[in-house]
Amino acid sequence: MTGSATDRAGTWIGSDESGKGDYFGPLVVAAVAVDEASAERLAAAGVQDSKRVSNRRAQALSDLILAECPHALVVIGPRKYNELYERIGNLNRLLAWAHARAIEDLLDDVEPTVIVVDKFADDRVLRQALMKKGARHRVIQVVRGESDPAVAAASILARARFLSALEELSRTWNVPLAAGAGTPTLEAGRAFVARHGAPALREVAKLHFKTTAAVTSALNSDQRRSR
After folding, report:
1. Are 216 and 194 in contact (CB under 8 A)?
2. What is the spatial distance between Cα 4 and Cα 8, in angstroms, rounded to a whole number?
3. Pair (79, 112) in one structural domain
4. Rounded to whole angstroms, how far apart are CA atoms 213 and 219?
5. Which 3 state secondary structure label does DSSP give 59?
6. Which DSSP state fits 47?
7. CA atoms within 13 A on the CB side of 7
């Protein structure tokens, strides 16, 4: 299944995810179908790996992709993500299911020559997750798959949806939730727990991250000092 991102013909599908390394917010997987003409138009508009464009630009490019290309999105909100992770117990298997679901949904609308997935795990993990229609197609995982225009489009579409969902969670809980998993995220987590309590983290965060322990240990330390 591992292969090159070259020699595309006809219509092909690319899939990529966003939110995997972000403590707050959902996990989003997008699958996007392109042909040679639409791939050229997307490239001319600046569609590339979402990590190389600003958040604002990703949002603007996502509107173009939504209008230009057949697509499918799988959005796993934090509560559902935590349920699935507790049941599956492995992030790569969860990712494989989400990629397989997005691919399967898009195959209702297009018949691709190949499906290109940004590589995230051993080929066996993805192969076992593929569903009825996906298993009948040629699926390859590509390291740095965003060099493929379909995968690049999927990466931007997934990132834009992730950012929108993160903003919505911030408004709902009245706490600015930071992307990533660094110091701003830790500070946001402490502010969230101070306002809503640690159990509510399940509604906004991926609990298996080490950030959870850092956030809750800080709360426990503050509580001990206040006694």
Report:
1. no
2. 10
3. yes
4. 10
5. helix
6. -
7. 3
The whole-model pTM stands at 0.90
Residue 224 corresponds to which tokens in the numbers above?
């001990």
Evaluate whether residue 75 is within a structural domain. yes
Tokens of 63: 């509107």
Residue 191 has pLDDT above 90, yes or no: yes
Q: Specify whether the CB–CB gap between 142 and 151 falls below 8 A.
A: yes
Please tell me the distance from the alpha carbon of residue 115 to that of residue 134, in angstroms, as a whole number: 9
Boundary-marking domain end, from 168, 187, 211 = 168
Angstrom distance (rounded) from CA 67 to CA 77: 24
- Whether 4 is covered by a domain: the verdict is no
Domain that holds residue 62: 12-168
Query: Mind listing the pLDDT tens digit for each residue in 4-29?
Result: 444 567 999 999 999 999 999 999 99
Residue 69 lies in a domain: yes
How many whole angstroms separate alpha carbon 225 and alpha carbon 195?
18
Domain count of the fold of the chain: 2
In a domain, 35, yes or no: yes
Length of the chain: 227
CA distance linking residue 12 with residue 27, whole number of Å: 23
157 and 222 co-located in one domain: no
**Does residue 160 share a domain with residue 181?**
no
